[in-house]
Design a protein that fits this description.
- The protein has helices at residues 2-16, 25-42, 45-51, 74-82; strands spanning 57-60, 70-72, 85-87, 90-100, 103-112, 114-116, 119-120, 124-135, 138-148.
- It is of the alpha+beta class.
- Helix 2 (25-42) runs antiparallel to helix 3 (45-51).
- The termini are far apart.
Amino acid sequence: MRTQLKGLLLAAAVVAMPMAAQAGDREDVLRTTNELFAALKTGDQAALERMVPKEGFTEFPGRGKGRLLIHFTTAKVMAAIKGGLHSNVEFLHPDVVMTGPDSAFVTGYRYGQVYQGDTPTPAFTTRGTIIFQKVSGQWKVVHLHFSPLVPES
């Protein structure tokens, strides 16, 4: 009886455990992170459409931006790029954390400048977190958060 009970408890624990990420998922998330910043630099609409769900993604832009949550779609991003917005922003020292078979986040540092036409913003370095969800076998960006690396004075 005890052996059967132990077997049942073990089976219940295995069934209740969240499924682990598959081999290669961590590398796929890292690759998608790098491709996201490359697509934003070059204005590659097809790449953005592969990485962004149709419903778009959200961003907490950090302090002092006037809004707590911004909703983006690929169309909004492309309109800004076609309107002259461009950047040399990179995401440095990414660290991927798999939170399940279809969810992950990446932390790191965003560094660079954003330009409107030929006018640059001051160079910046921020901490960042990017949340990914696996949809139909592809990793999609569902949320971004960036905050100043050092407190604003």
